């Protein structure tokens, strides 16, 4: 199904946990027993060593702890008070990674409302709307509709800093459902342009997520029926593709992609990015999470290829790196490029935190400006320990160990809760998902709760009289 990473209400005193990955789960997720999956993959060096395009020279290889909940080992830990524990000299603590903050978060008022700069783009605050599918391209032609205009522009008026438009297919067969939006053809550009123009007119940054669903394509939704199932051809569905002929749960078995087809898909991502620029978007996000095509290549549980696009960590990340390089070559040099990843698939032997950190370091060297950290969606039938902030420790680990800017997402619903994520250095921005579906003006309410001075609150002039 789609990227809907926020659920249910929580109170404002939700426990945010510390940097250990035990915090959200309470158990070592690598120890889960999942029937019918491949044996565990070999450990990956957390420094990404040996991978083409990684950082060069001078880095020592760090050993995987073998405990997904304790990545980095004793020498990598700090206490709650920031003082070094055993394994690191207290006299020489590692410098804090500030990411996109010019100073300590919150030094100049609430961190949520500090501007953020990525390359040549300044975003008015650090409250972002994540990409969430709406299944509302009712013509089944990939073109957004007046619903999308109202949905995105209302949240721009509501004060969000960045609006990331939902998973947008780079090819017709790359849609998650028949009613997904797309940018696989030039005639779709104008359908996006008016939406983008008014998102920007309301003061927000307009970004878009590019995606290919792979084996999770051709699935049902409220507009088509067949929810949770593969849509048959007679109802508008299509055959799916994947790195290997392994189905997701009870979905139809996909066809394994050939190497030439993979090359063609790299070109499709680049062409969609070029169209996004033409439509006026200011940032691009590549969807490499939640079990869609790029994520399927990354994960050893869904990628059993023996060629250059599989057969170990370096091969499994190759498709993503080629997509990153192709898009970076199509968009302006001052345009930010983001990548969304699942930091774990919550399954034994699959994609995990150590591999995510290694990948994040390599992505940074390939011109990626921020990693949007989520989890899951790759393997069906797993148990995910959903609770407030359950994914925040993953973003914190990726940010600290890879030294890349990150976002945090997942049951972040309250202003003070979101503020704490930034103050503790666990992310550079927070994404408010399902809470934003019920409250398009969440940032304006957050500003009131946090005591933001009125001249820093992003009210549209027409709404100032109604300010909190």
Automatic annotation (TrEMBL):
Annotated keywords: Flavoprotein, FMN, NADP, Oxidoreductase
Domain spans labelled NADH:flavin oxidoreductase/NADH oxidase N-terminal: 112-449
Cofactor: FMN
Pfam families: Oxidored_FMN
Leader sequence residues: none
Coiled-coil ranges (or none): none
Biased composition (Basic residues): 53-62
Gene3D superfamilies recorded: Aldolase class I
Biased composition (Polar residues): 1-16
Chain intervals for the UniProt region annotation (Disordered): 1-104
Biased composition (Basic and acidic residues): 73-84
Protein name, as recorded: NADH:flavin oxidoreductase/NADH oxidase
Annotated source species: Bifidobacterium santillanense
């Amino acid at each position: 199904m789609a990227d809907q990473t926020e659920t249910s209400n929580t109170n404002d005193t939700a426990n945010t946990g510390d940097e250990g990955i035990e915090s959200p789960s309470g158990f070592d997720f690598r120890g889960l027993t999942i029937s019918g999956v491949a044996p565990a993959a070999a450990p990956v060096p957390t420094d990404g060593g040996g991978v083409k395009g990684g950082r060069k020279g001078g880095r020592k290889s760090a050993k995987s702890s073998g405990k997904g909940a304790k990545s980095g080992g004793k020498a990598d830990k700090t206490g709650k008070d920031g003082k070094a524990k055993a394994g690191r000299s207290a006299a020489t603590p590692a410098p804090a990674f500030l990411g996109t903050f010019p100073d300590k978060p919150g030094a100049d008022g609430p961190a949520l409302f500090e501007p953020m700069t990525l390359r040549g783009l300044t975003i008015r605050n650090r409250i972002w709307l994540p990409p969430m599918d709406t299944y509302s391209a009712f013509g089944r032609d990939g073109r957004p509709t007046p619903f999308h205009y109202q949905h995105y522009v209302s949240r721009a008026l509501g004060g969000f800093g960045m609006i990331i438009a939902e998973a947008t297919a780079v090819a017709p067969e790359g849609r998650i459902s028949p009613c997904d939006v797309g940018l696989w053809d030039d005639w779709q550009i104008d359908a996006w342009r008016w939406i983008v123009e008014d998102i920007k007119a309301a003061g927000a940054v307009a970004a878009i997520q590019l995606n290919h669903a792979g084996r999770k394509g051709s699935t049902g939704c409220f507009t088509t029926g067949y929810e949770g199932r593969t849509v048959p051809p007679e109802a508008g569905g299509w055959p799916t593709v994947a790195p290997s002929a392994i189905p997701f749960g009870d979905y139809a078995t996909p066809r394994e992609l050939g190497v030439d087809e993979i090359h063609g898909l790299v070109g499709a991502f680049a062409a969609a990015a070029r169209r996004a620029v033409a439509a006026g978007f200011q940032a691009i996000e590549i969807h490499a999470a939640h079990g869609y095509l790029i994520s399927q290549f990354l994960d050893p549980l869904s990628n059993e290829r023996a060629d250059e696009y599989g057969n170990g960590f370096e091969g499994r990340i190759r498709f993503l790196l080629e997509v990153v390089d192709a898009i970076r070559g199509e968009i302006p040099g001052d345009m930010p490029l983001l990548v969304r990843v699942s930091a774990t698939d919550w399954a034994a032997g699959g994609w995990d935190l150590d591999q995510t950190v290694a990948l994040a370091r390599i992505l940074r060297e390939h011109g990626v400006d921020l990693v949007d950290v989520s989890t899951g969606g790759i393997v069906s039938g797993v148990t995910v320990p959903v609770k407030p902030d359950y994914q925040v420790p993953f973003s914190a680990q990726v940010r600290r160990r890879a030294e890349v800017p990150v976002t945090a997402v997942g049951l972040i619903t309250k202003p003070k809760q979101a503020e704490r994520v930034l103050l503790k250095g666990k992310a550079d921005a927070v994404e408010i998902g399902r809470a934003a579906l019920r409250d398009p003006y969440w940032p304006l309410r957050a500003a009131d709760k946090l005591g933001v001075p009125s001249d820093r609150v992003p009210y549209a002039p027409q709404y100032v009289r109604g300010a909190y």
